[in-house]
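Lab notes, practical 5.
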Amino acid sequence: RVDCRARTLAVCARKEIRKRLSMAAVIGSPSCSVTFENSILRFAAVLVAGLLGGELAARVRLPRVTGWISAGIALRLIGLPGLASGDFREVFGPFVDFVLGYIAFSVGSALHIASLKNAGKRLTFLIATEATLTPALVAGGLMLVGDQPAGVSWILGAIAIAAAPGTTMVVVKEARARGVFVKTLIAAVALIDMTAVCVFAVVAALLRADQSLSPGAVTVALGTAGRELGTAILLGLTSATLLLVWIRRLRPNVTGPGFVAVILVSWGAATALGVSAILACTCAGLFLSNMRHDTARAGQAYLIPFGEALFTVFYTVAGMQLDFGHVIGAAGLVGLFFFGRLVGKMLSSFVAMSAAGMLPEVRRYLGLALLPHGGVAIGLIVIVQETPGLSWMADTVTTVGLAALAINQLVGPSMTRLALKRVGEIDLDRPRLLDFITEQTIIVGLQGQDKRAVIEQLVRRLFASSELGADIEQLREDLLRRAEKDSSFVGPGLVITHAAMEGDGPVRGVLGLSSKGLEFAAPDERRVHAVLLLVIPATEEAHYLEIVAAFSAGIVSNPAMRYQLYQAPSAAHAHKVLNPRGDIDFNCFLDETLIASSPPPPPQGNATSSP
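Output from the prediction step:
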């Protein structure tokens, strides 16, 4: 009976297979009307191909984005009906615009000014060098060695500035990295992308005014570019403000759909006015993040579940634009672009970080970590394809730009991980007792005539760098009252003071350092060089003594660490002192036994020496 049923199933299966093969033959025949001209079928084919390419790339330890681009190239080479051409603007245009707007908005949202208190100097220098050295090296190489027109060379130079925030974040998370280098890198990729858009807008305006880039057209073109940039900034500010008004006055739970609306409104209005849509979306994210940071983060979280599908289609379509018939002939130009960009990133980062007095490892390896090339670069290439005044260079820019981008995505993530390893910030994401002390919560050069002035300065920094629900006036008075009532001198030149806060959440704090020392009425009448201010939620009271023990023990028992901390020239140097590489006796992991390995703080008033 079982054999009979098996034979019956086998016969049915053979019939079904024959039926399916016959249908496939009919569909594949020239007379069949079923092709990929249908928009939904096109999207489905692109998505499935991209997913397969991404999985294959992941299996050989390559970034998924490389697999997505490769899948697009394969689709173009296969030449399926309706997918044989690289021009799919009618079908994929609105989708590509939305993903570009999403990328630009996310870049702007990453620029939370309150989180970059101590990074302004080095980031300013980096933007200046990236906006000049990188495009100059790329454009110069293409013009002098590659014999390319000035317009093509400078457009590619502007595209070369762009980084890859998405790829960089993936590498950082996979490496479990944390530290000053990581913070500088994450902020840098966002600002660099914004710089690339601005430089591109200026160069494009110059080219539309005069393709030869003659000096006579520069003044007019710069005025036009300035007006375009100003309009884009105003559009971003307006759309972000309207969303906040809508949330506060009408629909407080509309953050997710409102996030999508901001992207669409910013992009659509900018396109209608003929200004940079990418810059408008970037500014919208920038303004929203700094006006209501929690709202921007909630909006970004709304699209995270759909992110991989969006980027899969986006990068696959980008790969379909790459014609390898042109790449073979442009191999020399691709090489010039790649090496010019590599040298530009390394040189601009080294010069900027040296001028800012940054740590040696940051100077050496930041440029290497900035090698990945991502979505904003593709967006700028798409703009070249769609702008009538730039259409004459579209083939060259697309071929060179996408081919070099594919190479950068192939080697870039590995270089970023290598840089993280060399600076020693891999596998540091385990929670530590002093994690609340970050670069932005350290003040170097603390000043104040008395205790109240010092505490007020620290409280201002605490509220500027942390999202606290407490009332600032009440917190200030609580800290002052406790500092005046209790003796909080726990080591040579060290004062720790704290206030309790209702509710839950992490411990928050700020560290002030003064190399000259402060008159703080210490029991030994010596100057105070470090003031640690803590806010302890009710749920974290158990960790308070551990934090005090960890910090004071490091200062008391290690004179070399104490001297380096008190004399630190910058917040980045101080942060490095508090996070010694490979040392778990100080700033211990929360899952370690701290009190057993660290001596208790000294008795009150025992401070007998200064650094």
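Observations recorded by the TA: The first strand starts at residue 442 and ends at 444. The mean pLDDT is 76.
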